[in-house]
């Protein structure tokens, strides 16, 4: 099955209104690129309205970096799905390793967030589920065990019909923001495992799920990573803050 390449920018706690204009203009100038590659930008939530003003006709799509699993209430500092959706988000990252490690996103909490996103207002939002092993887990040969546990828990309540609203991003924790990229072969091995696992659970519906690689993707290593058969695009942190580098990465997915 032919899946449209997908590249997602994760600005983390970075960016500005000025960078919003710069990156949006650079992206929108390359209409050929935006026809071939689905590009999503996940800025800090406070910049979503600025992004909304820059994008037209969904040529660039928007996402939130996280959500609270509750739809409203006394959750100071958090953002709900109705709020991020109203601000233009169509995608929501869930289970990013920085959230898992520093902000209490256990496998169970990730599951609750996935469930709430897929239940939201008639499935208007897509989940970008991040999974990945830590360095000591890879060193002790537990990579696949960790990925399987994260997938099985996060997707426990997800039906085959809902899978069309799911993206999986493989992000080895040791490669995020470290400059250490997984080799194309290492990444492909894990992506093939994820595809097989999804096929076992969901049969043909698994074919629709884009599988992204994330972890120190740069303009120079993107072509080899994206050439692998089970890598459908990337989740890009640091390099998404540099318009030229991010455009080169998106073009490598074309
Ligand atoms: C990320 O934050 O998801 C990420 C992959 O970051 P970086 O590209 O900087 O490693």
TrEMBL record:
One of its GO terms (biological process) is glyceraldehyde-3-phosphate biosynthetic process. Substrate binds at residues 10-12, 177, 216, 237-238. Transmembrane segments: none annotated. Pathway: Carbohydrate metabolism; erythritol degradation; Carbohydrate biosynthesis; gluconeogenesis; Carbohydrate degradation; glycolysis; D-glyceraldehyde 3-phosphate from glycerone phosphate: step 1/1. It catalyses: D-glyceraldehyde 3-phosphate = dihydroxyacetone phosphate. It is found in: Cytoplasm. Its EC number is 5.3.1.1. InterPro entries: Aldolase_TIM, TIM_sf, TrioseP_Isoase_bac/euk, Triosephosphate_isomerase, Triosephosphate_isomerase_AS. Its main location: cytoplasm. Keywords: Cytoplasm, Gluconeogenesis, Glycolysis, Isomerase. The keyword Isomerase applies. It is an enzyme of class 5 (isomerase). GO terms for molecular function: triose-phosphate isomerase activity. One of its GO terms (cellular component) is cytosol. The active site is at residues 96, 171. Involved in the gluconeogenesis. Catalyzes stereospecifically the conversion of dihydroxyacetone phosphate (DHAP) to D-glyceraldehyde-3-phosphate (G3P). NCBIfam families: tim. Belongs to the triosephosphate isomerase family. Homodimer. This is Triosephosphate isomerase. It comes from Pseudidiomarina piscicola.
């Amino acid at each position: 099955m032919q899946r449209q390449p997908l590249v997602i920018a994760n600005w983390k706690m970075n960016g500005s209104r000025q960078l919003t204009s710069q990156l949006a203009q650079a992206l929108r100038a390359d209409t050929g690129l935006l026809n071939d590659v689905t590009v999503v930008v996940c800025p800090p939530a406070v910049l979503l309205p600025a992004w909304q003003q820059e994008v037209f006709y969904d040529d660039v799509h928007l996402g939130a970096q996280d959500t609270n699993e509750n739809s409203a209430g006394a959750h100071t500092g958090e953002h709900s799905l109705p709020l991020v959706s109203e601000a233009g988000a169509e995608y929501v990252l869930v289970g990013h390793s920085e959230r898992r490690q520093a902000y209490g996103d256990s496998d169970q909490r990730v599951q609750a967030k996935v469930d709430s996103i897929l239940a939201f207002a008639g499935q208007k939002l897509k989940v970008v589920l991040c999974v990945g092993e830590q360095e000591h887990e890879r060193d002790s040969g537990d990579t696949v065990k960790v990925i399987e546990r994260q997938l099985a828990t996060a997707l426990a309540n997800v039906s085959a019909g809902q899978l069309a609203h799911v993206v999986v991003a493989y992000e080895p924790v040791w490669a995020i923001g470290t400059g250490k990229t997984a080799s194309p072969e290492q990444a492909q091995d894990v992506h093939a495992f994820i595809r097989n696992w999804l096929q076992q659970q969901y049969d043909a519906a698994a074919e629709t799920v884009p599988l992204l690689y994330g972890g120190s993707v740069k303009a120079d290593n993107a072509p080899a990573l994206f050439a692998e058969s089970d890598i459908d695009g990337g989740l890009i942190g640091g390099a998404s803050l540099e318009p030229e580098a991010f455009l080169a990465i998106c073009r490598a997915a074309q």
